[in-house]
Design a protein that fits this description.
The complex is a heterodimer of chains A (131) and B (457). Chain A is built from three helices and nine strands; from the N terminus they run E-E-E-H-E-E-E-E-E-H-E-H. Chain A is globular. The mean pLDDT of chain A is 93. Chain B has eleven helices and 15 strands. A seven-stranded mixed beta sheet of chain B has the order 2-8-7-6-5-3-4, with helices on both faces. In chain B, strands 11-12-15-14 form a four-stranded antiparallel beta sheet. Chain B has a two-stranded parallel sheet with strand order 1-13. In chain B, helix 7 links the parallel strand 5 and strand 6. The chains are: A alpha+beta (131), B alpha/beta (457). The interface between A and B is small, with 8 and 8 residues.
Amino acid sequence: MSKVPSDLKYTKTHEWVKKLPDGSVEIGITDHAQHALGDLVFVEVPETGRTVTAGEPVAVVESVKAASDVYSPIAGVITAGNPDLAAAPELINSDPYGAGWLMRLTPADAGSLTQLMDAAAYETLVQAEGD
Amino acid sequence: MAFIPHTEQDVAEMLAAIGAKKIDDLFDEIPASLRIKSLSGVPTALNEMEIARLMAERAKQDGRPLCFIGAGAYEHHIPAAVWAVTTRGEFYSAYTPYQAEASQGTLQTIYEYQTMICGLTAMAVSNASLYDGASAFTEASLMAVRANRKSRSLRVLVPTSVHPNYRKAAVAATGGQGLRFEEVPYNPDSGLLAVDALAKYDGEDIAALAIQQPNFFGALEDVDALTDWARARNILVIAIVNPTSLALLKPPGEWGTNGADIAIGEGQPLGVPLSSGGPYFGFMTTRMEYVRQMPGRIVGRTVDLNGREGFTLTLQAREQHIRRAKANSNICTNQGLLMTAATIYMALMGPEGLERVASASHARTRDLVAALSRTKGVRAAFDSHFFHEAVLILDRPVAPVLKSLASRNILGGFDLSADYPALGNALLVCATETKTDADIESYAAALGDAMQAALAA
């Protein structure tokens, strides 16, 4: 059973979103997603300053068996990509909600988080996918 | 077990399992307007006896002319051992194997090839080869646009001194993906791309600059200045290089202060016969930081569970059997047989042998240009340095002169007037180590006659 922290927001495509005190958000992929991908070997994080729309592919996570796009859960401007992932992509496997974060973003609309799933809804989705 | 993969019953069962009535139903997403009902340009089938006879007659038409044509494909001496080894049953395959890791010898050959190509180009990583020089340039352009994360544009600057066929192939293959190739003119006195011709692009968002060395005219570009110009503007440099020339010239990994970003070229000069235009192979190399943007197959060296050395296809998540529509490229194989020949050629020649081939080709071309320029009405087009090709300007149309030379069993060069009308009556000539003093003298002697004959005609 994968971990689904209750204080985060989630997407159908298995990204999580955390609100930061300065109004920006941190984004990563869920424990369920990292488990499904297997050992990660490479992560391509987005360039800082890039303006993205909700649902736009912004990053690539590559494991020993697959490469997948990561989609931006909301619209905004990228303020940081996690620099540690270049040398240590396995941080996503070991700590998907912490040291394995992918990027930070300033939302175009602060209210857009409300459209995302809460932990209970995401847990239901994961169970439906057979986790 | 009968080796008949799809009996009618098998097909019927498979269709029933997926709920389709006939095989055509599987393609119904392709609009009727895009379907071709018959292949009108294809002649009727011939049997083996007929085709063998036809091919023997065609081969006879080639004759054994004295060839001074280069223009992208070069006649070099190929040691007999190259193809004797390449055509052994163990090597004799067109592609990378499908059960790749079961074919350790093939993978090791590819790994050796990649290592040699990296050595020649001074680049960090090589793929297992592509189809030819033009397809390598096409793939390099797509790769540069993907890899250049500081640029959001699809614009690639291409000097008109880059091989015209490479430019045409790239435009044809990438138009659907929106790439824009912007032609930059060469200097008419030198035949070279000058940095000041690029000034109009200062401040514009450009993804890549292509630099061919030596360029299509055989002339040597100022690659250091051009590379540094591009780097200062976050423009990636695609080097298009002749592998033989790299035995003498500065390799693309050392161009400018930081080297080229992608280096590609036509591999034919490395042990592949001219054979009427193909098959050849393309090579491609890049910096380590762009390896995940590189198309094609890559072989890596590793150890197995018992610590024994082994070879494996690596970084396959770039490829279409894994990434599907988002793969780097639809090329998921390599030009295995030709690449094998090149590996054996390079191994036989060694760096010293390749340098001797390059030096001799350069010297022969200098002799050729000097000898031909003695003919009245013939002069060198440019004042720049060249490798093993140069442009001559004639005082009369080139085609009749070439025709007259051909009747004397001499292929006198490549007529540039269709691709470069501004040059006038321009002829691209090449001599490699295969040409003797006597060969060059017989061309020079025949040229005078051919010029007269052309005027009379």
